[in-house]
Prior knowledge:
By secondary structure, this protein is mainly alpha-helical. The protein contains 21 helices and three strands.
Amino acid sequence: MSYDELLAKIKDANLLRSTASILSWDQECMMPPGGVEHRSLQMAQIAGLAHQRFTDPRIGELLAECEADDELTSDPASEQAAVLRELRRGYDRSTKLPADLVQEAARTRSIAHHHWQQAREESDFDKFRPWLEKNIDLARRVAEAYGWADGEEPWDALAEGYEPGMRARQIEGVFTPLRDRLQNLIADLTSGPRRPSTRFLEIAVPTGEQRAFVPQIAEQMGFDFERGRIDISVHPFCSGTNPGDVRITTRFRDDAFADALTATMHEAGHGLYEQGLLPEHTGTPLGRAASLGIHESQSRMWENFVGRSLPFWEWCMPRVRDAFGSAFDDVTPQDAYEAVNTVSPDFIRVEADEATYNMHIMVRFELERLMMSGELVAADLPDEWNRRYKEYLGVDVPNDRVGCLQDTHWSGASFGYFPTYTLGNLYAAQFFEKILEDVPGLHEEFARGDLSSLKSWLNENIHKHGGRYQPADLCERVTGKALSADPLLRHLERKLRPLYGV
C-alpha cells in the first residue's frame, strides 16, 4: 500500500535526524572543544543524507497517490489526512532547498555555535560576529529558496518552519498592544507601595546540593528518568529523539538556586511533552509536537503556573528545608512565592520574571526581522540591542555576555524562532484556564505535591495528538476559543497586583 511505503520512507529519514539530534546534544554537553571541526563535518554529512531521503522523488509520487485516495483524505480530521497534510508541507519545503545549501548550513551552524560559546564566555561580540554574518547570509539564502508570498517578507519563510501559519505582521499585531499593556502593568508594579520578600533568593546553595535536589522536582512532575536524563549546558534545552530517550539540561550557580529550579521545571515541561508523544507514531508527523509555540506552552506552564504558584511552594518549601538545612528555617512558603514572582526588569531572558519576559522576546523578534531584511547588519547588533533594552525595559546593558550573546539561537541560525516563546506563554495561560475548569481542585493537589492530574490532562489533550492539529486549531479544539492575550494578562494581574499592593 502506498501509505505504508510512504511512512516507511519518512521514518527512515527521521532516523537520521534523530541521530543528528544526539550529536548536537553531545556537542553541548560532552564533546571536548577540539572536536568541533570534525563534528561540523559529521553534522553536514547527516544533514545532506537526511535531505536526500526527505526529497526522494518516490516520496513525491507516494504523496500524490495517497492524496488521490478518498479513503485516506475524505475526513480532514483523520490521522491519515493529518499525516499527509504535514508530509506535503514538509516535502514541498524540503524540495526547494539545494542539497549543498543544506550541508553548508549544517556545517556552519556547528562551528558557529562553538565560536558563540567562546565569545559569550569572554563577552566579546567581535569573536562571534563573522559567524553571525555567515548565519545571516545562509538564512537569507534559505528564505529565498523557500520563497514568500506577496506582502510577506524573508522572515516569514523561516518562521513557517517553527510555527506553521505565523507571519511577522500577525506577530507585530499581537506584540504591539501586548507590549503597551505589559509596560503599563510593569510601571504600576514597580511604583507600587509594597515590595515582595526576596529572602528566598538571597540564600546561597552549593551547586552540588542543587544538582542532587532539582531532579527530584522533575521526577515529581512525572518526568521518567528511565526514558530521560538531565545534564548541564551553557544554555538549558530539551532534546528528544523519541519518547524513550528525552534529554534535558539545566545550569547552576551557588547564588541562583531559584533559577536552577525554574529552568529545570521549564525543560522538564518540554521533556514531558516529548515523553507523552505516542511511541507508535515516532518518525511521523503525529510523533512530533504541533509547533514550537505549543511546545513552549508546556514548559512555561510547569515553570510559571506550577513552579511560581503558592500551593506548589506550600509543598516544596519543607523539602527545601530538608535538603539544604537551617539556612531556610525562617523562610516561609509565602516568602518563596513572593521571591519567585518578584518583578525586576533585567538583562537575561531565561531568568526574567513573568511580567517582563515577553519584552525580551519582542526585542529579539524586531532585531532578527531587521537582520533578515538587511536593514540591520551584524556589526550594529550590540548597539541596537542595548538601545531597545533601555527603551523597553529601562535597563543599561553592561556587556555583550548579558546582552546580544546570551542566547544560543542565532549561533544555530534559528531565525524566526523567538516569537514562539511568547506564543507559548499565551497558549499556556489559555490552556490553564481550561484545566482549572476541568480539574477544579487542582491547586489543592499542588499543595499536596500531587501533580499527576495536570500531567494526565496534558497527556490526553495536548501530548498524544502530536502534530495532528495545526496549533491554532489545537488551541480552539481544547479551549473552545481562538488564541487571545487576555488569559495571560488576567493571570498576571491577579497574581502580581496583590503582591505589590496595587
